[in-house]
Amino acid sequence: MLTVDFTKFPINPGDRVLDLGCGAGRHAFEAYRRGARVVAADLDVKELPPVGSMFAAMRETGEAGPPGAAAAVSADATNLPFPDGAFDAIIAAEILEHIPDDTAAMAEIARILRPGGTVAVTVPAWLPERICWALSREYHEVPGGHVRIFTRAELGAKLAAAGLTPIGGHHAHGLHSAYWWLKCAVGVHDDKHPAVRAYHRLLVWDIMSKPALTRLSEAALNPLIGKSLVIYARKAETPKPVIPNGFAVPLASTRSPHGDAGGSGGVVPPGKQSDLAGSGAAE
């Protein structure tokens, strides 16, 4: 289930893509299918081995598009182990609501994104999230849980302050809000409640079958109660310096000369992540 719409956030073969806060890797896998050189990063190291294994399986079965390469790494969003301008595109899906210093994370995203690069940021939408908080303290008052609720205006302003200009956005997962309200009402961790199980089966059926009725229903619900807010933003191009005779001086390429060292699809150990921007996954 993708939150980012890749028709609005195009990824091209060879693009250097970071999926920050990758979790189980859903967006990283889609970028890899499109031939990108992908780094999937998460603070929770337990998430990474399955992601690395999936990268390897995709490569072995031919599901990864050429000339893609991929690696899974551990990284702190407020202190990322990558050089300036390392990535052409960055995805930060459902991560900023967990980070106390969200402005530091946005500054890091802007730093490692190349001039002219794009970022897709998703967070829980204000209204559905506010209802979840009202129904259940357990939903958000847990270690590592949600520490804030963004409005669209607040998120856009913070991205702009970091040097990332919003260029579009939408809501997603309109069918999922009621599921989370139900879980908050009966107990966030009570997955065996009959109503929760029934709704979960509906969502799985919808994801797998994509019937027209639920697709139309979700499209109608998304602007009203879409569970996720998605904003796309761009980092400004670096102006070319101009010499006195009026001719622009082209800047040196930001691409690294290093070869493909990240194609194994494995997990990169701490201390080696800074090499990825010039190796298989990010270059």
Automatic annotation (TrEMBL):
One of its GO terms (molecular function) is S-adenosylmethionine-dependent methyltransferase activity. Residues 253-283 are annotated as: Disordered. One of its GO terms (biological process) is methylation. Keywords: Methyltransferase, Transferase. The keyword Cell inner membrane does not apply. The keyword Transferase applies. Residues 18-120 form the Methyltransferase type domain. This is Class I SAM-dependent methyltransferase. It comes from Trebonia kvetii.
